Each structure stands twice: as C-alpha cells, then as structure tokens.
Amino acid sequence: MFDNPMLLFIQFMNGLSLGLNLFIIAAGLTLILGVLGVLNFAHGAFYMIGGYASYTLVNWLSGVPGGFWFAALGAAGLLALGAWGIERLMLRRLYGRDHVYQLLFTFALVLIIGDVVKVVWGSSILSVSFPPGLDGAVNLGIAWYPSYRLLLCAIGVAVAAGLWFFVNRTRAGRLVRAAKQDREMLQALGINVGRIYMLVFVAGSALAGFGGALAAPAIALAPGMDAEIIVECFIIVIIGGLGSLGGAFLGAIMLGLLTAFGISLFPDFEIVMVYLMMVLVLLIRPWGLLGKPQAGG
C-alpha cells in the first residue's frame, strides 16, 4: 500500500473521516465525564437512538429539501429532550454518590434502550440513504473520494472548533470549567451548579445523537450497535485524558487512522492494535495524552 500514493491517501482520508465522526460522539462523553464525573455507559445507546431516530425522521421528511439535515438535528433534539428528563428525574440524585451507583444506573439505561429499540424498530438491519447530492465522489486531484465522508470531516472540524470556542472564549464555558474544578466554590458564589450539570448532560447526549444521525448513512443500523461505539469512545477518552476535549480530538484521530490502516495492513489484528495503542499511551502517560495527573496520584 505504501508504494501506492492514491491508496495511501484514500486510507488516510477514511481514517480522518472515521476519527472526526468518533470525536463528535466521544466529545459528549468527555464533557459528561469531565464535568459531572459520571461514567455514562448509556452514551453508546444514545448514539444508537440518534441513528434510529434519523432513520424515522428521514422517512417522514422524504421529499422535503434538506430533510436529512432536519432529521439529524431532530435526532439531536430528541436526545437532548430525553437526556433532560433522565437528568432531572434520576441522574441528579446520584451526583456525589459512589461511582458504582452511576455505573449501575447507566448500564440499566443501556438494557432499557436496547429493548426499546427492538420494540420500536425491530431487529432487522436498517439503512439511511445518503443526503441528495452527497451520494457521489469528489475529485481531489490525487483520487476521487466520497463527498459525504468529506462533509463528515468538515462537520467534525467545525464541532471541534465550536466546542473549543465555547469552552475557552465564552462566560458559559468558563462556568463549565469552574464547575469541573471546584463545584463547592461555584455554589458559594451563587452559581446554579445543578443547572450547569443538567446543560452539560443534555449537550453531551445531543452530541451522541447527532453523531449517530451523521453516521447512519455510512453504517448499518442494528440492535447492539451501541456496544462497539461505547468501547471506542472510552478508548478515545482514556487515550486523550479524562475530561480533555483536545485529548479526545487527538485520540479520535489516532483511533480512526489506526483503524483505517490496520484494516488494510493487518486485518486480523486491527482490533488488537487499538488496544495496544491504548496500553502504550497509558504506559508512557497514565493520565492520557493531554490529561493531567490526579492530585495525590
């Protein structure tokens, strides 16, 4: 492959596209883990719901100009609404309690959502068509490349830039960072930390739904699709550093490229290579690439 520049370029772009789509999903998990300190096992299930919801909404909006994009935003909105209900009614009661309770709660959500998907959409494999005008390929000079995957790259970069701007350049972003570092101090200053937690959980879940909707045209929708994505998201979060959006971006790109090139070069060991990369990173930097050592650790 390395003596074929065109094939090398295509695999690089495949890895980049996969990595940027993974970042959109993993960014939500990173926000929730970094600010709320909740290991949200249900994040993959939220991604799955986003994919299935986009399937239904795309069919409902068939013939409407821009229907796919309305469906993707609708899927994100649906996840945001569901996350709001989950946080208000149940999750907020577990803040500050042992992580075991949070793990059990989010794992229960995984089981419930999995059964809901089977009841509503069945167990058959479903697919979502590419948006009109994005089912072809674009000539990039060195090779033709699917236009939808190129758009995924652009959206991934836009989401990363938007999150960076929000966290580092807005007052709301500064409050989110402050809530992550010292909740008690923020409460003493009269800031409603509970509302910040709720908004972070809603935004993180909406990102999972949006990522699922964007991925839907490129994958097969089937029950159980959440299991693989949650493992990949946790690998990205661990590699990048707990709670680090920059680390999640770097980890997602690394995972995407390793997966794309691993499938071509070592198809029998592609999954093993991903875990080896994680182990290697942890041996060198136990707190992740852009994470920070825990106090007292």
What does this structure look like?
- It is a multi-pass membrane protein.
- Pfam families: BPD_transp_2.
- Belongs to the binding-protein-dependent transport system permease family. LivHM subfamily.
- The chain crosses the membrane at residues 20-39, 46-62, 68-91, 103-128, 148-167, 196-222, 234-260, 272-290.
- The chain has 297 residues and is mainly alpha-helical.
- Helices cover 71% and strands 2% of the residues.
- It has helices at residues 5-36, 43-60, 67-89, 99-121, 147-169, 171-181, 183-188, 193-215, 225-240, 245-265, 270-284, and strands at residues 137-139, 144-146.
- It has a two-stranded antiparallel ribbon.
Overall pLDDT metric: 91
Cα-to-Cα separation, first versus last residue? 43 Å
DSSP summary, beta strand count: 2
Shape type: globular
Return the string of H and E elements.
HHHHEEHHHHHHH
Enumerate the spans where pLDDT stays under 50 for 5 or more consecutive residues: none
Radius of gyration, Cα only, in angstroms?
Answer: 19 Å
**Level of helix content?**
over 70%
User: How many DSSP helices?
Assistant: 11
Strand content: under 5%
Structural class: mainly alpha
Widest sheet: strand ordering: 1-2
The main β sheet shows up as: 2 strands, antiparallel
